[in-house]
């Protein structure tokens, strides 16, 4: 597993998402400002609804832009066995049922998923309960979180 490749896939996916969001924002803006969508009476709300959509799309573009910038500038140094898991770490976890998963700790873009050589890798951030619990942990450490009243326990199997 190569974290530079994972990082590159993450950046490529964010760039695609950014492009799609920009086009959607532009379309929403054009719809909101089109002359045919000028309200003719108080019940004609298409233009107003389109303007709300345009504002939401613009916000989404900015969120993706921020995630892309943070991920482009994230440190990708080698795993430091004295500091433990940090932003930029690629790690394997195993739950108490023996199920394995791979995670990439990034400053933003939580929930984004990429595949590398057929392996699903999920991006998490330090703002999540799991991401927060993992920071500073080492291979072999156990991590416990409570989600919706359910305790979940994981073992760090590998850190890159």
TrEMBL record:
- Do you know which Gene3D superfamilies this protein is assigned to? Transcription elongation factor, GreA/GreB, C-terminal domain
The protein's superkingdom reads Bacteria
Coiled coil region boundaries: none
Q: Which residues form the signal peptide?
A: none
Protein's UniProt keywords contain Protein biosynthesis: yes
Q: Which InterPro entries match?
A: GreA/GreB_C_sf (IPR036953)
Q: Determine if Protein biosynthesis is one of this entry's keywords.
A: yes
**Keyword list, A-Z:** Elongation factor, Protein biosynthesis
Q: Which GO terms describe its biological process?
A: regulation of DNA-templated transcription elongation
GO: which molecular function terms? DNA binding; translation elongation factor activity
Q: What is this protein called?
A: Transcription elongation factor GreAB
Give the organism, scientific name.
Pseudomonas kielensis
């Amino acid at each position: 597993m190569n974290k530079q490749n994972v990082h590159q896939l993450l950046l490529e996916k964010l760039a695609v998402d950014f492009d799609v969001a920009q086009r959607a924002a532009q379309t929403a803006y054009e719809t909101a400002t089109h002359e045919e969508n000028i309200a003719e009476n108080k019940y004609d709300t298409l233009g107003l609804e389109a303007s709300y959509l345009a504002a939401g799309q613009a916000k989404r573009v900015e969120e993706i832009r921020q995630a892309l910038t943070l991920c482009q500038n994230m440190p990708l140094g080698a795993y430091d066995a004295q500091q433990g898991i940090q932003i930029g770490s690629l790690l394997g976890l195993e739950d108490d049922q023996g199920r394995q998963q791979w995670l990439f700790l990034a400053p933003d873009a939580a929930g984004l998923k990429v595949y590398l050589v057929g392996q699903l890798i999920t991006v998490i951030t330090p703002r999540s309960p799991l991401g927060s619990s993992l920071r500073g942990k080492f291979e072999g450490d156990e991590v416990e979180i409570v989600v919706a009243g359910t305790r979940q326990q994981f073992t760090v199997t590998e850190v890159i």
